[in-house]
Design brief:
Blueprint (H helix, E strand, L loop, with lengths): L4 H8 L4 H6 L4 H16 L8 H8 L4 H35 L3 H9 L1 H5 L4 H5 L17 H14 L5 H16 L4 H20 L3 H16 L4 H13 L1 H5 L2 H4 L1
Protein name: PP4R1 phosphatase
Keywords: Repeat
InterPro entries: ARM-like (IPR011989), ARM-type_fold (IPR016024), PP2A_Regulatory_Subunit_A (IPR051023)
Length: 249
Amino acid sequence: DIIPQPLLDQYLSMTDPARAQTVDTEIAKHCAYSLPGVALTLGRQNWHCLKDTYETLASDVQWKVRRTLAFSIHELAVILGDQLTAADLVPIFNGFLKDLDEVRIGVLKHLYDFLKLLHADKRREYLYQLQEFVVTDNSRNWRFRYELAEQLILILELYNPNDVYDYLRHIALTLCSDKVSEVRWISFKLVVAILQKFYTNNANALGLNFINELVVRFRHCSKWVGRQAFAFICQVGMFSLCVSMCTFN
């Protein structure tokens, strides 16, 4: 009743490998690009019509097809709702996390948008996997680490102070020592955001522990770049924004 059945059948047939060889080698990519729009038109009650096609595209041998889906999986999650997302999209999302960097960047750019749609218990499972984003296929791909720091600033609101301290703090410290200055600068903002998270949630002990770690790791660093990092962290506004003068002294 929504769209003609022959039109839907024609769309679903785009994933047929024979069509890619005889019609258009890019046809699967076009299908992947259009899928969120088709899903929105059909509605979540008709997701079963697209589920098999989506899974086929998600395992396509062409990384460009998988990349296209990775960039839009957060939009599809909004269309499908939390239950279908947990059942059908989370497994595919997990697969994208282990894919090539060209695919992983798609989920990374909208990591916050996807995680906020999950239930708290499911969302917490990804705390163990966020560290994996620090490692890339090409270490010169510094924009990947830059994007990670930007996403973590947003993601802080999704987790409690203890989880931030146990998992996200380590990532922030690693990024603050990155070889690329752009990555270090955004990471200094991440450090400030973490401290704000601690002190606005009355987790003062965690905040003080983190400050002491920053002092030991950067202020007393044997390399000048580490001591410079500490000065820049202060410049960003770490202490003035979220630490009392008593603690600062």
